[in-house]
Amino acid sequence: MAIISNTVAYLDNGVVLEAFFAFDDAFSDRRPAVLINHAWGGRDAFVTGKAEQLAELGYVGFALDMYGKGILGSTPDENAALMQPFMDDRALLQQRITAALAAVKLLPWVDETRIAAIGFCFGGLCVLDLARTGVAIKGVVSFHGLLGAPDNLKGQPIKAKVLAMHGHDDPMVPVEQVVAFEQEMTEAGADWQFLTFGHTMHAFTNPVANNPGFGTVYQADADRRSWLAMKNFLAEIFA
Questions:
Q1: Which domains does the chain carry?
Q2: Mean pLDDT across the stretch 234-239?
C-alpha cells in the first residue's frame, strides 16, 4: 500500500488552476472522491495534508484551487484581497468550484457517481455554495465555514446532504446567521445537520491558529470531533 499524490492543472474560463490529489494504490477499483476547498489563503499544505488523510480512508482526495496556479496569500491583507472578489460575486465562486468538480470527474480512479466536498473557513462557504447550486453530489461538509446565503440561488432545491460544523464563540458567524442558515436549508429541502462546539472560535481545525483577538483559535477537541463526524458522514453518504 502506498499513497500516491500529484498535481493536475484545469481551467475555469481561461484561468489556469492547479489541484493536488492523492489516492491509495492498494485499491484497483474506482472509488469516491472528496473535493477539499481551502481557506482564504489559497491551496496550501493544510489542505494537501487533508487530501492525503482522505486517501488513507480509501477516497481520492482532491485539494482544489480557487485562485490560480501558484497563487497564495501570506498575510491577512493578502488573503482578504484574494477572497473578496468571490465574496462580491458568488456566481463566480460557484463557477470556480464547479470547474473543480468537473476536473475531479476526469481522474481515472474516481467513481463520478460518488463525490462529496469539504471546506474550511472560506472553503466551507464554497462547498455550501456548491450544494446550493443544486448539483447532484452526495454531500458537503463545512468546517467553521461562513454561512451567509448568496442572492443568486434563492429557491434552488439542495440535493446534496449537508453537514455544517461551527464554533459557538465564532465571531465571524453570529447566531443570527446560524438561524438563517438552518431556515435556508429547511426551505431548500436539504437533508442537513448542524453541529456546534462549545467554547470554540473560528478556525478550530487549524493547529497554527492562535489569535483570540481576531477570533481564530485552534481547539484540539473540536478538531478531533469534527473530523470523526465527517468520517461518519462520508461513510453514510457513500454506502
A1: 3-237 (3.40.50.1820)
A2: 98
Dist CA 175 CA 123 (whole Å)? 20
**Cα–chain center distance at 177:** 19
Q: Is the pLDDT of residue 7 over 90?
A: yes
pTM of the model: 0.97
Q: Inform me whether the pLDDT recorded for 1 exceeds 80.
A: no
The DSSP secondary structure of the chain, one letter per residue, reads: --EEEEEEEEEETTEEEEEEEEEETT--S-EEEEEEE--TT-S-HHHHHHHHHHHHTTSEEEE--SS-TT----SHHHHHHHHHHHHH-HHHHHHHHHHHHHHHTTSTTEEEEEEEEEEETHHHHHHHHHHHTT---SEEEEES---PPPSTTTT----SEEEEEEETT-TTS-HHHHHHHHHHHHHTT--EEEEEETT--BTTT-TT-EETTTTEE--HHHHHHHHHHHHHHHHHHT-
Alpha-carbon distance of 195 to 142, in angstroms, equals: 10
Q: According to the model, what pLDDT value does residue 98 have?
A: 98
Cell of 77: 491583507
Sheet holding 192-197, edge to edge: 3-12, 15-24, 60-63, 31-37, 110-120, 139-143, 161-167, 192-197
Give the span between the Cα atoms of 238 and 156, in whole angstroms.
Answer: 24
